[in-house]
Each structure stands twice: as C-alpha cells, then as structure tokens.
Amino acid sequence: MITRPVRIASSCALAVTLAVTAVAPAIADAAPHSTAVVKKVKRGVNRVDLKVRSAAMKETVPVTVLSPSGEPGARGTLYMLDGADAGKDVSDWITKGGAAGFFAGRDVNVVLPAGGAGSFYTNWIRKDPKLGKPQWETFLTEELPPIIAKEFGTNGRSAVMGLSMGGQSAFTLATRHPDLYQGVASLSGCPPVSGPANEAYVRTTVAKSGGDASNMWGNPGTKRWRDHDPSLRLDTLKGKAIYLSAGSGAVGPQDLTVKRDPKDGPEDAQIAAGSALEAGAYRCSLEFAAEMSTAGVRYTPGFRLIGTHSWTYWKNDLPNAWNVLAPVLY
30 Cβ partners below 8 Å, 6+ apart? Predict the structure, then answer.
C-alpha cells in the first residue's frame, strides 16, 4: 500500500469535525451558463461536497472530493464512478463503498460525482424521455479537471476507476482520452460493448434506469458504438496502470452474511440476481483480458473464483485497485 505521511485529526476531533458542516458562500460572479462551483460544503477533515454547474450538462452536478485536508496541494487525482444504480446526491462509493474511510490520510484527491445512473458517463446524442441528454464525457474530461486543479491542486497525474457500468465507462474514458489518465480500473464491469452479448448488457443496463440506449449511441453496431468500445482502442492502454477484477458469480460466505434491504425484494432473489450479473461481468472481463494480452497490454488481474455483484466484494477489491493505480499518481 502506498501512502504519504499526512497529518490528520484524532478520532475524537474527527468526530466533532464531522458533526459540524461548514458551508462556503456560493460563487456569484460566474456567467449564468458557464461551468462553475456554485456551492461548497466541508463535511469533515477529508471531505468536501461541491455543487458544480455544468455548461455541457445544463444542470448542477453533485461532486464529492476526498483529500488529506481539503486544502490545495500538488497531488494526483483519482476519479471514481458509480454503477448503474448511482446515488442521486452522493456517490455510492461514499454511502456504500467506504471510500471516505479508506482514503483518509492518503495524499490523493479522490473525485466522486453523483447522479450518473444508467448514463454510462458518456455524451448522449439525443434527448431521452427519462434520462435527458447527459454529457458526462465532456463534464468529466473538460469541465471538472480544471475545477479540481483550482480548488484542490494537482500534480498533473490522474486515474479513473469504476464498478459495474462505471467500470466500462472508466475504460472508455481512458481509451478516448489517453493523455488525461495514467491509470484505469474496472471492478465487475464489461469494458467491450461490441457483439450481441455486450450490446445487450449495455441496453439492459440503460433500460434498468428507464432509458433507451439508442438515444445514447444510436443503433448497436454503428460507428458511435465502436468509438466507445475500449477493445477497439487497445493501443491507447499500453503503458498505463491497469486493474481488472470480477467474481465468477458463485455464491460465497460473504453473500450469506451481508445485510440486505428488504425493499429490494426477497434475499434469495437478490442473491440470484447478483450471481447472474456477476457471471456476465466475469465472462466479459475475461474476454477483455484476453484481448489485452493478445495486444501486448499489461494489466493486473483480480479475478475471483467466488463472488456476486455486491458491495461486499467491491470493498475488498478497492485496496487492490488502489495498490495498482497509486504508483502512477505520485
């Protein structure tokens, strides 16, 4: 594990700090349609919540940033993307994934946008009746990095990672913007989007949030789908730090002990659904791993013989992904 000494508060002081919310005044001097931070809330020693007005998205996007002290510094930046059920106001990595505790004291800016459910963090070509017309790629690669650099500092090095839908998106962003990211990781994702099985995965994922993937990239198999397929841009991954993980879908002891929300249905049904989803991600990730190997792209595998599509496993994968990405951020 790679860390740098960072002075942090004691547990008692931290508890007091977290109980107090400091709200920075909204920025009032920015043009009405420009990209700008319109609200900044300090949630604790290591966490700041931003409201970023995006010109591309035409809406305000919630973004949580974890940093050693909340003050600017010359440090790398890790962007972390949610899955298809992304939290609306706060990233699932915060509410479910334990990211705040894991990154406490680590000398890195961790950027966690919220509100990306079903979007694949991409630029949509048409307005969708349910999901609107997201322009996540522009927001994440053009609008947000200068804001993070200004507010929290940068050393010019970045990486991107995600789980499930966000894992596919992380590899798409890394291959479409190879100069922006030095590392990329997918946990239980399906990076390739070509072929009937992978196309069906994308369409089903978008449909789960009520959207139509034809409004995102057009008809499957067309140029826009190919342009967002990392398996067709493998040369851009050479030399990057890469972590790829997934479980086989087999149910393990952790699946039987984790607490589940009754609102999501019977426990057996939840486990079965998680098993099926993970089996699909496992197949797809192995396919992508084989393609990378054939192309001479080096990566670190994190494939597991057991494990379903569940936060209990992604929490375990996070330290492994960080160990791979950390060296390229310092």
Answer: 36, 38, 53
Predicted structure pTM score: 0.89
Alpha-carbon distance of 82 to 35, in angstroms, equals 22
Does residue 189 carry a pLDDT above 80?
yes
Residue 307 and residue 248 in contact, taking contact as beta carbons nearer than 8 Å: yes
- SS3 for 150? helix
CB count within 10 Å of CB 92 equals 24
256 pLDDT exceeds 90?
no
| Domain layout of the chain by residue ranges | 70-329
List the beta bridge partners of residue 241: 183
Cα-based distances in Å from 191 to 9, 50, 138, 165: 39, 29, 19, 9
Q: Which class is 70-329 in CATH?
A: alpha beta
Residue pair 8/68 in contact (Cβ under 8 Å)? The answer is yes
Is residue 292 within 8 Å of 234, Cβ to Cβ?
yes
